[in-house]
Amino acid sequence: MTEENQKNPLAAMTGQKFLYQQPEVLTLEDHGSLGITPNERPFDFVKDERAIPLTMVEISSAQRHYPIIFSNLEDPVPMAVLGLPGGGNVFIDEQGQWDPLCYVPSYLRCYPFALASQGNGSRALVLDRAGPTVTEEARFPFFVDSQPSAEVKAIMQFVGEYEEERKRTAEFSRLLVKHKVLDKMQANYNVEGSNEQQVLAHYVGINLQKLNALDPEVVLELHSNGWLAPMYLMHYSMQCWRPLRLRADARNA
Fold it and tell me: What is the value of pTM for the model shown?
């Protein structure tokens, strides 16, 4: 992940929600005739994305399939790496389907919905009006008899739970910055048939030496509050760089 956007694939999240092209607060007046019609190619909209945000609670599942890195050093967001520089998402097949053996990040399962805070402290359900599954005469309407449909109520609960996890993840990231355990790093691989190493990607990750050098009281506090385990799981996820490269090589063969 080189160059400016590759160092921070989530740069678009600043001032605008990542992937959401036309976010609008869902209302009966503006969206009463709309709903969701499932797409036969549900993940085409992220086929070119190389990284997707994760919440802390997802790390244990995602670390089995993806290298998990951070967006940057200053305001880090955990991300699952889905592809390498110069390529796209290698977990989506030619039919626009996600590999059924691999974890699908909650961020994508929320889309095209999200929660937004309003000035009075309440939260509103936001819709990406440009989402490919948002249609007229939909299979799952947003409103039935002028009331939110059962599907909308269910997604509100899901995105609400996601938002709470996102807040906890932001606290997790602030702790990493506070204790200065993040570093600029690189993933290398051996060129087949030689001892030569090539750089696979540059990224921001947890420096295990810095983590292990923390004061024991700090480590105990991190462990007691549930912060320590995901840190080590992120470190273990670095083993996924090789399978990711092999996927990318097979895609380009």
Answer: 0.88
